[in-house]
Amino acid sequence: MHVLHDAPLAPLTTFRLGGPAERLLTALSDDEVIDAVREADGAGTPLLVIGGGSNLVIGDKGFAGTALRIATRGFSLDGTRLEVAAGEVWSDTVARTVEAGLAGIECLAGIPGSAGATPIQNVGAYGQEVSSTIREVVAYDRVERRTVVLAAGECEFSYRHSRFKAQPERYVVLRVRFELEDAGGLSAPIKYAETARALGVEPGDRVPAATARETVLKLRAGKGMVLDPDDHDTWSAGSFFTNPILGESQYRAFLAKAERRLGGDVAPPAWDLGDGLTKTSAAWLIDKAGFTKGYGSGPARISTKHTLALTNRGGATTEDLLALAREVVAGVEQAFGVTLVNEPVTVNAEI
């Protein structure tokens, strides 16, 4: 296991922000991950688990404890069943399943980060979520002090949420097992309207899985959502806020505020989730509240390609980013009465 003291953490995040950790361990095997967790827990040392760092905002003062970077490797296909180690690069994982002619995660191409982080956030994009293909998650349970295997139904998946996110101090994901589909090289049915339009097909149609993946990569790149060290629009955590889900009374109040602000001819995006719940677009709210692409004058600004991404233009501090996030949250709240919730995990940082 590789050990560093007073170790910079900013290079391990896609924001390239944050102070150092007292100690940084890099684990290359499941056993090393478990040993490091047990050591920290036994000593009462604060522990920060880091995968690809694409969903992480670390405060400028850093982390007073042990940071554990999971760099495990392992990719195993048995028919349509895939087992992947937590440290595998997610975008590479998607590419390899598509090369194998399997469907189910091809529209999750280009999402930065590690495979082990995907069930925590229930990662989703362009009409797919990992929860639809996850069969089991292998994790170390810090309460029971043993390795456990949780079936998909035990993971309590919901929109950008899971049992692992609800109990962040309990589980450390080691491996993820997927059940994919052999559709003769075709994708899963295309669900997302934007993807269907880009492909020139109707929602519900299938296309070659490789074509679906390539199309999604182009769509994401156009929004600055594919990592590029030379493009500051990608120095971000992707979507910084989740799409709000509103109850009936909240939704009515939101519509009334939107009509007063924008007029009756403007219809906010809305998706009926059933049970009286409606999801609307965080990107739309941000834009209509006056925070357009490229908003900001300091080193932390809204992406020039997508209003949902907050970015480090180079030389920013975490506090610069947080100040921008607070401004956006307050502005949307004032304009529409809707409180945005940040998607990235914050460490020694508050919005």
Question: Shape, please?
Answer: globular
- Overall mean pLDDT stands at 97
SS strand fraction: 25-35%
Number of strands: 20
Quickly count the helices.
9
> What's the helical proportion of residues?
25-40%
- What about the largest sheet? 5 strands, antiparallel
Q: What is the radius of gyration?
A: 20 Å
Give the class from helix and strand content and strand pairing.
alpha+beta
How far apart are the termini? 34 Å
Widest sheet: strand ordering:
6-7-13-11-12
Low-confidence stretches: none
User: What series of H and E elements makes up the topology?
Assistant: EEHEEEEEHEHEEEEHEEHHEHEEHEEHE
Tags for this model:
single chain; 351 residues; alpha+beta; 5-stranded antiparallel sheet; 4-stranded mixed sheet; globular
Question: Can you tell me about this structure?
Answer:
- The chain is α+β, with helices and mostly antiparallel strands and 351 residues long.
- 27% of the residues lie in helices and 25% in strands.
- The protein has 9 helices and 20 strands.
- It has helices at 30-43, 90-99, 118-121, 163-166, 193-199, 209-222, 248-262, 282-288, 318-336, and strands spanning 2-8, 20-27, 47-50, 56-58, 63-70, 75-78, 81-85, 102-103, 124-125, 128-129, 134-141, 146-151, 171-179, 181-182, 245-246, 271-274, 277-279, 300-302, 310-312, 345-347.
- The strands form 7 sheets. A 5-stranded antiparallel sheet has the order 6-7-13-11-12. Strands 1-2-5-3 form a 4-stranded mixed sheet, with helices on one face.
- The mean pLDDT is 97.
